[in-house]
Amino acid sequence: MKRFIRDVIGWLILLAAVLTIYHFLSSPQETPDGEAYAYTSDGKVPTGLYPAVEDKTNELIQRAENRGITMFITDDFRSSADQDELYAQGRTSGGSIVTNARGGESYHNYGLAVDFALKNSQGEAIWDMNYDGNGNGKADWMEVVDLAKELGFEWGGDWPGFKDYPHLQMDFGLTISQLKEGYMPK
Ligand SMILES: [Zn+2]
Q1: Residue 130 Cα, ligand 1 centroid: separation in angstroms?
Q2: CA 10–ligand 1 middle distance (angstroms)
Q3: How does pLDDT run across 101-144, given as a tens digit for each residue?
Q4: What is the mean pLDDT of residues 7-12?
Q5: Which residues contact 135 (CB under 8 A, 6 or more apart)?
Q6: For residue 108, which of 72, 136, 83 has the smallest C-alpha distance?
Q7: Is residue 38 predicted with pLDDT exceeding 90?
Q8: What tens digit of pLDDT does each residue of 60-104 get?
Q9: What count of other Cβ atoms lies within 10 Å of the Cβ of residue 31?
Q10: Ligand 1 centre from 12 Cα, in Å?
Q11: Chain centroid offset of residue 30 CA
Q12: What percent of the chain has pLDDT over 90?
């Protein structure tokens, strides 16, 4: 029995050591690629699109236009309150479910995501993923996705489970829980 207790204590000490090491390794000081990021110590929550994401979005629109594809952004920054309202859609309010993220749980809430749609030749907004307006045999939607990935965006259509086809985001190696803590890319 004494031996058993000694073993248990030994394992607990080992577990504590592992957890301590894990805590230091996982403390959000640097992104996985080594790029340091800033802590928004003033407690300010983002109120708009993060500048680097805005630049890449504008570049994406331009590159698509160069290929004869007109795309536009339907949604960019979303406050946590807006996100909660969207989450309610199809649950406690009308319409169909469009998101699984509550306020603070979407990259939109940190200005790190945009949603896009296409415009057809009549200038109407479309979400048709097979539309080939520039007639090059490739779906315009997927051409935009490929261009976006080249620019460093992650596509919601690649997610396992709930697929968000209009959604593009840049996480800079930051998880939602790190963003919730107040970390933002530098
Ligand atoms: Zn989105």
Answers
A1: 20
A2: 48
A3: 999 999 999 999 999 999 999 999 999 999 999 999 999 999 99
A4: 81
A5: none
A6: 83
A7: no
A8: 999 999 999 999 999 999 999 999 999 999 999 999 998 889 999
A9: 17
A10: 43
A11: 18
A12: 66
Secondary structure (3-state) at 39: strand
| C-alpha of residue 98 to centroid of ligand 1, in Å | 9
Farthest-apart Cα atoms in the chain, separation: 82
The first and second tokens of residue 178, run together, are: 């790190």
User: Which residues make up the environment of ion ligand 1, defined by Cβ < 5 Å?
Assistant: 113, 115, 167
Strands 125-126 and 113-119 come out as antiparallel
Q: List Cβ neighbours of 167 (8 Å cut-off, separation of 6 or more).
A: 113, 114, 115, 155, 156, 157
- For 116-152, give one letter per residue: b (16+ CB within 10 A) or e: bbbbeeeeeeeeeeebebeeeeebbbebbbebbeebe
- Does the structure show a pLDDT above 80 at 180? yes
Q: List the CATH code of the domain at 51-185.
A: 3.30.1380.10
For the cut 80, the answer to whether the pLDDT of residue 157 exceeds it is yes
133 CA to centre of ligand 1 in angstroms: 23
How many angstroms separate the Cα of 43 from the Cα of each of 19, 35, 107? 28, 21, 18
Take residue 107 and report the two structure tokens written for it: 């990259």
Regarding predicted confidence, which is higher, 139 or 47?
139
